[in-house]
Amino acid sequence: MATTGAGAPAITAPSSSTFTASSPFSLKASRTSHRQSARRVSVNVRCVSSPPADTSYKTKVPRNANMAKLQAGYLFPEIARRRAAHLLKHPDAKIISLGIGDTTEPIPDVITNAMAERAHALSTIDGYSGYGAEQGEKKLRSAIAATYYADLGIEDADIFVSDGAKCDISRLQVLFGSKATIAVQDPSYPAYVDSSVIMGQTGLYQQDVQKYGNIEYMRCTPENGFFPDLSTVARTDIIFFCSPNNPTGAAASRDQLTKLVKFAKDNGSIIVYDSAYAMYISDDSPKSIFEIPGAKEVAIETASFSKYAGFTGVRLGWTVVPKELLFSDGHPVAKDFNRIVCTSFNGASNIAQAGGLACLSPEGLKAMHDVVGFYKENTKIIVDTFTSLGFNVYGAKNAPYVWVHFPGRNSWDVFAEILEKANVVTTPGSGFGPGGEGFVRVSAFGHRDNIIEAARRLKQLYK
Amino acid sequence: MATTGAGAPAITAPSSSTFTASSPFSLKASRTSHRQSARRVSVNVRCVSSPPADTSYKTKVPRNANMAKLQAGYLFPEIARRRAAHLLKHPDAKIISLGIGDTTEPIPDVITNAMAERAHALSTIDGYSGYGAEQGEKKLRSAIAATYYADLGIEDADIFVSDGAKCDISRLQVLFGSKATIAVQDPSYPAYVDSSVIMGQTGLYQQDVQKYGNIEYMRCTPENGFFPDLSTVARTDIIFFCSPNNPTGAAASRDQLTKLVKFAKDNGSIIVYDSAYAMYISDDSPKSIFEIPGAKEVAIETASFSKYAGFTGVRLGWTVVPKELLFSDGHPVAKDFNRIVCTSFNGASNIAQAGGLACLSPEGLKAMHDVVGFYKENTKIIVDTFTSLGFNVYGAKNAPYVWVHFPGRNSWDVFAEILEKANVVTTPGSGFGPGGEGFVRVSAFGHRDNIIEAARRLKQLYK
């Protein structure tokens, strides 16, 4: 229920029974039972009416080889699957999810009222609207530019409203195409790497190093303050950079981002800067890459209302593609991104956009600030818990994530231990890349009583 | 205003001034003024502080060559641009848009009430929900399966809820990958071809035949009853087939679809069947490809609430990928599509999904039926108008589109004539492929008084 915050992905993990369960429509399942029957009592074979295995009709369409490169399921559905398996074994377990980073607190009603009002208006002649601009409503684009980019030289037309950062990351990958090369922070949010694999930008997965070929992994560790040693990083076309980082919670300083922009400029690379957690920044780290002089010529920024206003299910975000950003032939990147957006997207839901506009009103901004403040208090409880137990803990200060070190241990083992012994779902660090091995990410999204209860159980487990 | 139904794309056409206008941030614009100044009075050059042209910073990231293949803007933004240009010349023109197929009638309040209720619930502890399943809410998937696919062997798990058919078409293209070959009806909805070009499945655009290389165009004309002569169609991996067709309005009969399924099966192809207008069918043409025996082994179906419930701006649709559909290596297509959806999408807006569920209640179904009936009455008015003027008119019976023949004339010329002389926006047939040359598509989406007024003006123009 509301205490788990896990949404419904449990039913949908790629490896779930949905696709393998026996059903009247599954020839594959029928084949299995055919064989099993045959092994047991051969006389039963005639009762099996399904055709034998090799007569299953297959199209002649080859599977996309890039899809075959992907490892296991996408991280979060996989966690949901393991959580569901645990529940099956322990139906009475009172699981607390500090796993997938899902928001739990209600959306402030200044925002939901605006969405309800828009919904009602759609049933009136005057209030009805059909297709909106693919790039988002003009008013919302203006409000985003004015709220987050005032004095940074970003204009309304540079803003593309989306149904969320994850969706725009894939659209950006389609824009760059299969020949682009990418770099990612290691560890980082898995959508960058997975979308790159799907687009065919990578080689095969190399089991020994747990990396895909042709991706530049920029190691971020406590030793380098979670900022990569750029002198060892090879040039790529695209650099995905998330700050505050998911999962480490580290926010890059002004000095670090200045180095990053210089690195991109020297190499002629494009930075895709994911600022989905910018409002969680407490110190003077930049909240936008465009605070760095010259960034408009080398960077795209993607952002989201999800973690500020609880819009994980409502779906609303934006991407900034400055008109100054040019491909090597001088063609503006924004012009091609506009074409992608017009061809493969039809705008975010108009009701969600009404919510976004309310988020950016004075009352909405105050309400989002309060939501962020609440989760930051949660973060402090989690940090205090692990610190009191003697763990080294990172992130947290500028992000809703606590990055806890379990030196020498396997992340999935720690994940399983905490799930089985404390009924708390976390996220194994290695799910974010090999650089996450030995860590787990603990999310601060949760009701206060759940955070306190999780803290109590963790103290019990690791006392 | 509400009478135009054109949304806001006018500000956003790829060739709009957004990307070329002079601004403090556009080096390119500064360069132009530099040169103009230099031509006029050389002494003024020193006043231009912008750097000269060749110092504009360019990244070293090559533009995706597939993007460069695309011709002009996506059709509908291009129409919006021409409409805006007309308005600029004639600011008092009372334009009626029967162009982009945008719905105009309010959403029935049984549906908007459900959306408003969900919005309000999101501000309560009990009613809040965060991330939903990427594939859609279980209840909605069940309702879609029960409403549209009862007795067709399609189960909840085969349904993927989306933010609209256009978006899912692009996700399907990413699934198939750059090596897939496609066939399209000619004429057809431009998103199939454009998304194919973007994915790199095609050759260059061949100006002489107005076709992209490596796409199989299946000609659909009055002569063949708008169903292609399959004996002349080359095998492709994917066959995009829209019925009732956009733009011709033709719905394929059961016999024709049986031939299509057999053709796909013989060739080992996958049909992507776009049924976005199925509820407009008045005769006994199938409303789903899955009414055809064996289709589950060769077809995907994509559908939408847009044209039934006025959800063009709310954004909600679905795609059916039957578990029986297998790639040549036996891998289920649904399993890979699930991975695409999990990686590049985060589910449709939960508020829109609440609306979808209300659409499928008994009251919602009745309300959608009434909306469809209203637009079908509009269709009749348009058909009667053109018929009375002696035009040959197609489609209309099973679709909200009237396909009007202007033999020997250029579609864009007819489009311009109707816009300039009657202030009515239509869609030039050639925008849907070379097979649409000599036709315009007239959309029946409009307020009744606008339809009647448009009919009056057209009678005046072509009397």
From TrEMBL, chains A, B:
GO molecular function, one term: pyridoxal phosphate binding
Co-factor requirement: pyridoxal 5'-phosphate
InterPro entries: Aminotransferase_I/II_large, DapL/ALD1, PyrdxlP-dep_Trfase, PyrdxlP-dep_Trfase_major, PyrdxlP-dep_Trfase_small
Keywords: Aminotransferase, Pyridoxal phosphate, Transferase
Biological process (GO), any one: systemic acquired resistance, salicylic acid mediated signaling pathway
Xref: Pfam families: Aminotran_1_2 (PF00155)
Taxonomy, superkingdom: Eukaryota
Family: Belongs to the class-I pyridoxal-phosphate-dependent aminotransferase family. LL-diaminopimelate aminotransferase subfamily.
Record's protein name: Aminotransferase class I/classII large domain-containing protein
Organism of this sequence: Eragrostis curvula (weeping love grass)
